[in-house]
Structures are given as C-alpha cells and as structure tokens.
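Chain entry —
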Amino acid sequence: MPNIATVLKAEISRVARKDARAETQPLKKASAQYRSDIAALKRRVLALEKQLSRLARSSKASASPTPAKASAGGLRYSAKGLVAQRKRLGLTATAVAKILNVSVQSIYKWEDGKTRPRASQLPAIASLRKMGKQDAAKFLASLPG
C-alpha cells in the first residue's frame, strides 16, 4: 500500500499542474494570435512595398516621356520621316544641317536612329514638312556662307 504522503504529494502536484495550465492557456492563445497577426502584418508590408516600387517605376517611366511631348507641343519625330523629308526636298544631309542649324553628323545619326533630336530642335524639323523644294532652295540661298 502506497504511503499516504506520496499519494498526497502526487495529488497536490497534479492539482498545481492543472491550475498552472489553466492560468497559462489564455497566455498561449494570445501569444499564438499575436504571432499570426505579426506574420500577416509582415506580408501586408511586403505587398505594399512591392506595390510602391511598381508605382515608382511606372511613374518614372511615364514621367520621362510626358515633358518631352508637352514641351515639343505634340510634335512627332521618326528617323524614316526625316529621311523621307530630305529626299522629298531633294536636299543633301549637309543642306538639311544648314537649314536646321545643326551639324551634319547630327543629321546622319538622327537618320540612322542612333540618336533623337532634342525637343528644342523638333520645331525646326517640323518646319521642314511645311517647306517645298523652292522654299528650301530660297532658304539655303539666303544663308550666309
């Protein structure tokens, strides 16, 4: 037959464990809830940071071309178009360079599509579209040199 002291000691420890478990159970539940809340917040922050970087990239991409178009007054430019205008007017690249007041090398690079003219030069290029062969010849004759 077990000793009464041993039985009493076992019963006291069982009751103490039961009370301790009852006391710590709400703390464990709260801790688990806090951990899941923290994980959800981390996921949300990550998603918002990705969205912010996407918006920043798209705003940079859309912000760059907009001022160029706005300052140029909606003028269009294409390398093929410049070549076609030059040929339509029967001009050499040197003559077009004199009319536009740029270097011949600039004309060659614009026509090859290696570079694009600055926004400040687009109105002069657009004026080529309005010129005829005679207008271009008169303009070249009026230039000094």
Notes: The first helix runs from residue 4 to 63. Residues 36 and 42 are 10 Å apart (CA to CA). DSSP finds seven helices and no strands in the chain.
